[in-house]
Write a structure and sequence with these properties.
The chain is an alpha/beta fold. The chain has 14 helices and ten strands. It is about 55% helix and about 15% strand. A six-stranded parallel β-sheet has the order 7-6-5-8-9-10. Strands 2-3-1-4 form a four-stranded antiparallel β-sheet. α2 packs across α5 and α4 packs across α12.
Length: about 425
Amino acid sequence: MSEIASMLVTHRKASIDEIERAWHGDVETILKWVGSQERVEECAVLKTCNRVEIYIVSQRGEKVLFDLAKKARVSSRIIDFHDHDESLHHLLRLASGLESMIIGEDQILGQMKELIQMAMKAGTTGWMLETAFKKAIQVGKRVRKETRINERSVSVGSAAVDLAEEILGNLEGKSVLVIGAGDTGELISRALMAKNISSLCVTNRTFSSAKSLAECLGGIAVPFEEMKSRLKVADVVISATAAPHYILLKDDIEKAMAGRENKLLLIDIANPRDIDEAAADIPGVELHNIDSLRNISSENMKQRMAEVKRVEAIISEELQLLKAKYKRKQAEDLLAVLYSQAEAIKDQEVRKAMNKLSARHTLGEIEQQVLQDMSHSIVNKLLSEPTKALKSAAERGDNELLASLAELFRLEDTS
């Protein structure tokens, strides 16, 4: 029987570069390719900076996805394969913010809405995937309404963005330079884009990493050797590299401030530090480092983690309701085929009986109606017990019995 299966490449196992290389093309291209594969009945794709997730409906989902991964040459080392129940559980956790790099972040919910609408517009989804995503989005909203999972900054990177906002009043319309495109640099950049800044510039020693991150978030990638020239126009600089030495000296910042009227906010969250501490002595420059942020983010993380159990309880409750909905639909589909086949046989046999009787007698409307009613009653009574058995098997999740009943009654359309 057809069920949902999924294949995930996420930040848990893969780097940004590996995620970028995992599936070539935009979402529409991937949807078209996956949807064209044999045995794929429905498909949807979630593609963000941190993940590429492919969901399909198929009678042999695991094999179909395994073959897709081989065709796309995606290493099994970075893939998670999920069956029907695992896929549903993951979707609810994802929408609730429990699978994000920043626990409880809100951006994923909007991304899920946008991407399922894209799949629906492309005509690659049906009842099964649309039901799953609709439920996931509902659960994500409920979680944020009933818990505090998305409150307070929980990473040093997001705390740095909050600090910048607190110092400047707000970040709307500000130009921000992020130095470093690793995990922390990504967290900073994602948090910044939610603040409606005017421009995000990302720089990194490996330019391709900066380019991938900037393109994903709608920012600008700057070659590392051009970084110092960007200091002249930036309102805020947040640095988070793994360099073993200063990458910005006091002299570099003095040159950037020459002839400049606006103040410059520097936030250094690297360890060891990226920015020369002496820069704090330059007029118009305000410098903060990681020490002032660690305690804030640590305490906030504790508060968010305290909410995780409440979130998981909501997910568990909603998951049971969702599973029950699929089980009912499974039984309804089988019964629809069963009754359709029975009605076809009944109509055929009633016509034969009427033809034989008409050859010897004239059948009036009353006689014809009696034959129809009698045959209809026989069908309903014969199928009464199988109907109860199908519904009961579906409610219990007894897939073996469902399959046996489908085979017994030759319900090929749903086998």
